[in-house]
Amino acid sequence: MTTVETQLPPLRRNRDFLLLWLGAGGTLLGTRVTITVYPMLALWATGSATMAGLVGAAALLPQLLVQLPAGVLVDRVDRRRLMILADVGCVLSTLSVAVAVFLGHTWIAHLVVVAFVQGALAICYDLAERSAVRHVVPKEQLSAALGQNEARSRAAGTLGQPLGSSLFAFLHWTPFVFTAFAHLVSLVSMLLIRKDFQDERSSAKRDFKAEVVEGFRWIWAQNLLRTAMILISVSNIVFAGLGITVIFLIKQSGGTGLLVGVITAIGGVGGMLGALTATRWLKWLTMRALLVGGFAVWALTVVPVAFTSDPFVLGGAFAAFGYVGGVFNVAGGIYLVSVAPDAMMGRAVSVMTLLGSGLAFLGALLTGPLLDGPGVLPTVLGMAAVMGLLSLVALGTPIVRAARYTVMNAPRPS
Q1: CA 20 to 30 Å from 375, out of 83, 161, 246, 411?
Q2: How far apart are CA 90 and CA 109, in angstroms?
């Protein structure tokens, strides 16, 4: 630890960081609650894994369609104002589902639209929040702040999934009321923050398309980051399918929605631990070992899901999924924030997320019919094979083989 770092007050005394951290935590928690419940509500209402997959895909589709325009928006407008408007939109959209379900109506078309809208607004909020962090903490504390943010995200998943399932088991409309309240908490936090979330902006008129292309070119020029995100994009398709699979397995075995939440929450605990310990791995391992080993662990832990609906086995598998994912997310976040200029930050994060998660909706969309048709065993073993192939591709890719260092252990210039 440097002398400068020891003289800085701890992050827990940074008022604006705490408000941003807590506000974003409320939004993340509410989002995790409803993302968990959307496919459950569709499956319980129709009995069809295909319908559950369709609704789940609608929630993920904004990762493909909204990322790039949202990134430009984040770099153009006042970021805090954008986050406030996103919270307001999420309150209204989720309350519309609560009212409909309370009145005894579950329309798949309605769920598809609201899931997409909420997903789109969540992307705008998330990109703005990631871009804002560097403006509320000193540069020397940026890595620690990003680690805490990733742990917060994983904790939101850990709490949100069982909470959403529990509320759903109690009354099907209550998860959506809770989410609306969580967004209101975030809204208040944003209104209390004093600092600006961006540098002074140029008043010159800018071309939307040119800004999108500029952001894409910048990320594409980061060879290792680009390669890693393409590989991760395939893995995220698998994980979206695994989310539908665990709901299907538990329902078929007579389990409750609460059990689904507990299993996926264990994955959140794993992710939180991965985020909190990520800096150690980034100091110990080469980037090559991190990528190849991470995909290999994922491949091995997918296999048991094909053969059992035992909640302990499923929980252990999801814990491993989450742990590796937590490490990966911190590694990518630290690297991006350390190299991206502020005027490019929103677009850089949006392009990176697009590469990593843009096709995730395919996992939910395709897995439902596969579960209804061929069944669990061939579907999940196929997922494991894809993960294994990703590890081999990473091992055989020159840019990954040459990655001897991470951001945390790279030699400092003399």
Answers
A1: 161
A2: 18
Q: Cα(first)–Cα(last) distance of the chain, in Å?
A: 19
Structure tokens at 252: 């078929």
Q: How far is CA 405 from the centre of its chain?
A: 25
Model confidence pTM above 0.85: no
pLDDT at 212: 78
Residue-range domains of the chain with CATH: 9-401 (1.20.1250.20)
What's the pLDDT score for residue 414?
A: 47
Instruction: Report whether pLDDT(162) > 70.
Output: yes
| Nearest in space to 233 (alpha carbons), one of 148, 359, 329 | 359
DSSP code string of 341-402 = -HHHHHHHHHHHHHHHHTTTHHHHHHHHHHHHTT-HHHHHHHHHHHHHHHHHHHHH-HHHHT
Among all chains, which residue has been given the structure tokens 């590694």?
Answer: 331
Distance separating alpha carbons of residues 190 and 81, to the nearest angstrom: 8
User: DSSP per residue over 51-89, as a string?
Assistant: HHHHHHHHHHTHHHHTHHHHHHHHHHS-HHHHHHHHHHH
**Dist. CA 409–CA 286, nearest whole Å:** 8
Whether residue 387 contacts residue 238, with contact meaning beta carbons closer than 8 Å, is answered with: yes
72, burial (CB in 10 Å: exposed 0-12, middle 13-18, buried 19+) = buried
Confidence at 5, pLDDT banded by 50, 70, 90: very low
The two tokens of residue 381 are 């073993």
The CB density around residue 59, as the number of other CB atoms within 10 Å, is: 27
